[in-house]
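User: tokens in, sequence out, please.
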């Protein structure tokens, strides 16, 4: 594999809806976790400036920062959903997408939506059984995404998931 960093097991997916909760979420992530920086809706200059701020926190906290989107970002450790240098992750919503991503060189797959999620209201979640069938025998690390938290990740361990990613699990106030 082309990556310089160990593959994180825990991930934060960023986007515009996270708002200022982004900074607390970055602090809440355990050392060595990953961040997929999305923020597609921002103009390029604002997106680059926000990425630079996130990169500073990521370096201080030992987080692996990959970017989604077309524009390369200075200091990225890899890319999500694109060709590029470093760690290459890809989204997969069905078996066809998963196989295509693996053939294109993905180091890991973010398989979603595992469970109902606020990010995609009304989208049909895979659920445990369909998730298990989708990921069986893929041969790359699978990161579960969609309505995830530690309890739900534990329920998917029998299917061999490598880790899990979330937005709300990291941005919600601790109970």
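Assistant: Sequence out:
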């Amino acid at each position: 594999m082309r990556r310089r960093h160990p593959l994180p097991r825990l991930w934060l997916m960023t986007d515009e809806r996270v708002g200022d909760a982004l900074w607390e979420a970055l602090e809440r992530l355990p050392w060595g976790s990953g961040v997929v920086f999305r923020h597609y809706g921002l103009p390029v200059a604002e997106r680059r400036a926000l990425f630079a701020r996130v990169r500073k926190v990521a370096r201080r906290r030992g987080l692996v920062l990959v970017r989604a989107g077309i524009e390369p970002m200075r200091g990225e450790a890899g890319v999500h959903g694109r060709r590029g240098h470093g760690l290459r992750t890809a989204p997969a919503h069905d078996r066809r997408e998963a196989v295509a991503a693996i053939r294109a060189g993905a180091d890991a797959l973010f398989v979603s939506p595992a469970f109902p999620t606020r990010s995609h209201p009304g989208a049909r979640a895979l659920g445990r059984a369909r998730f298990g069938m989708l990921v069986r025998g893929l041969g790359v690390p699978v990161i579960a995404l969609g309505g995830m938290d530690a309890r739900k990740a534990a329920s998917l361990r029998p299917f061999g998931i490598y880790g899990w990613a979330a937005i709300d699990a990291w941005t919600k106030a601790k109970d």
